[in-house]
Amino acid sequence: MQDGDSRQRRVKGLVTICGAFAGLMITLLGSFISAGILVPTLEAQPKLITLPSTWQIHGLLLCSLTCGSRAGIIASAAYLSIGLMHFPIFHSGGGLDYMTTPGFGYLAGLPAAAWLTGKTIQKFKRKGIISLTISAAAGLMILHLFGIINLVCGNIFYSWPEPLKELIFKLTLGPLPSQLALCAGIGMIGVPLRALLLEE
């Protein structure tokens, strides 16, 4: 019995590490890939409409949905560490100076978003597209909460180059609808991935 429990723990740890590495790779690559949706047209080919968002956040949320909150937290911590070591993987570059930019609060919210997404999906008995979408949206909301708190604090203690209202619109209200649509997309991707990885 103890050998079975020990083996199960080792397998779970291996899945977490592999999931974290895959999540990190998806997040890194997703930083450079613009999101878009295919819209059917009267012509033979559908039209691709580019969304004002990348796959960076949603790659991490997908990691948490499929491999658990622990894998998502590890992936987000690794992503932040790489970016703060002067590798230009963030939206406007990288390095420790990035911590003084308006957008850093959103990046600082990545570990919390990964944790909440992974924990929320565990609460659902049936893990279908709707529950995965809701879990991803919950993670997205906490990420935007971190971002807005950073914007407000930065506005109080030192002035941003743009007015607070403009920054909130530019960084939260503007991209939020497309990011919520992408949550539904990763909900659809997450169902077969969970079935494959977790044998659900």
Mind explaining what this structure looks like?
With 200 residues, the chain is mostly helical. The chain has a single domain, classed as Arp2/3 complex 21 kDa subunit ARPC3 (Orthogonal Bundle), CATH 1.10.1760.20. It is 69% helix and 7% strand. The protein is built from eight helices and two strands, in the order αββααααααα. It has helices at residues 2-30, 56-67, 69-84, 104-108, 110-123, 129-157, 164-173, 176-198; strands at 34-39, 47-54. Strands 1-2 form a two-stranded antiparallel sheet. A hairpin with a 7-residue loop joins strand 1 (34-39) and strand 2 (47-54). Helix 1 packs antiparallel against helix 2 (56-67), helix 5 packs antiparallel against helix 6 and helix 6 runs antiparallel to helix 7. The longest helix is centred in the N-terminal third of the chain and has 29 residues, at 2-30. The two termini are 23 Å apart. The model has no long low-confidence stretch (mean pLDDT 89).
Topology (elements, then pairings):
Layout: H1 2-30, E1 34-39, E2 47-54, H2 56-67, H3 69-84, H4 104-108, H5 110-123, H6 129-157, H7 164-173, H8 176-198
Antiparallel strand pairs: 1-2
* Number of DSSP helical runs: 8
- CATH level 3 topology: Arp2/3 complex 21 kDa subunit ARPC3
**Poorly predicted tracts of residues:** none
Order of helices and strands: HEEHHHHHHH
Mean pLDDT over all positions: 89
Q: Reading side by side through the largest sheet, how are the strands ordered?
A: 1-2
Shape-level CATH architecture? Orthogonal Bundle
Give the CATH class. Mainly Alpha
End-to-end C-alpha gap? 23 Å
Helix content: 55-70%
Count the domains.
1
Class by SSE composition: mainly alpha
Sheet having the most strands: 2 strands, antiparallel
**Extended strand count:** 2
Choose one word for the global shape. globular
Radius of gyration using CA atoms only:
18 Å
Strand content: 5-15%
